[in-house]
């Protein structure tokens, strides 16, 4: 099961997309300097297909992408929900995932148009820093491109 805490429309997390970012809890990572320590707790409401349908109905005219912020605790459910978004919207809304995994998680390229990898390491900084360990990938018809440079 995945739980979400809140959501917001954001403009910088995925380049050139207007993104509905859904903040998922129960993050299994323990990054020092975590921007949202409350997301390490198992809190919030269950994220279901019904919840996603409601969010998409409310915001789909305003957004081009939906980004799952977290979800590493249950990747099977995450992939299932991303697949639901793609199928229910016939690909008109792109899917993205901000993962804390330090490499592209297995099968993630089958369900997302964008995947961010890497835990937050204070000494290296976030995606907008040249020193960052984090990477943002674009996945297009099986082709994987590192587009981290677009975040700077
Ligand atoms: S992956 Fe993100 S939410 Fe999880 S501990 Fe690290 S910074 Fe915090």
How do you describe this structure in short?
By secondary structure, the chain is of the alpha/beta class. Helix content is 16%, strand content 26%.
Structure keywords:
8-stranded mixed β-sheet; TIM Barrel; 152 residues
Task: Write a structural description.
The protein is of the alpha/beta class and 152 residues long. It has one domain (3-151): TIM Barrel (Alpha-Beta Barrel). It contains 2 helices and 8 strands. It has helices at 49-59, 75-88, and strands at 3-10, 19-24, 45-46, 65-69, 94-98, 114-117, 135-140, 143-146. The protein has an 8-stranded mixed β-sheet, covered by helices on one side. The radius of gyration is 14 Å and the shape is globular. It binds iron/sulfur cluster (SF4). Iron/sulfur cluster (SF4) is lined by residues 27, 29-31, 34-36, 39-40, 70, 100, 119-120.
Number of structural domains? 1
Helix content: 10-25%
Bound molecules: iron/sulfur cluster
Q: Mean pLDDT, as a whole number?
A: 97
Structural class: alpha/beta
Instruction: Using the coordinates above, name the CATH class.
Output: Alpha Beta
| Largest sheet geometry | 8 strands, mixed
Low-confidence stretches are none
State the helix count.
Answer: 2
Order of helices and strands: EEEHEHEEEE
Rg, Å, rounded: 14 Å
Q: Report, as a whole number of angstroms, the end-to-end distance.
A: 34 Å
CATH superfamily: Aldolase class I
Spatial strand sequence of the major β-sheet:
3-1-2-4-5-6-7-8
Strand content is: 25-35%
Q: Which descriptor suits the 3D outline?
A: globular
CATH topology: TIM Barrel
Strand tally is 8
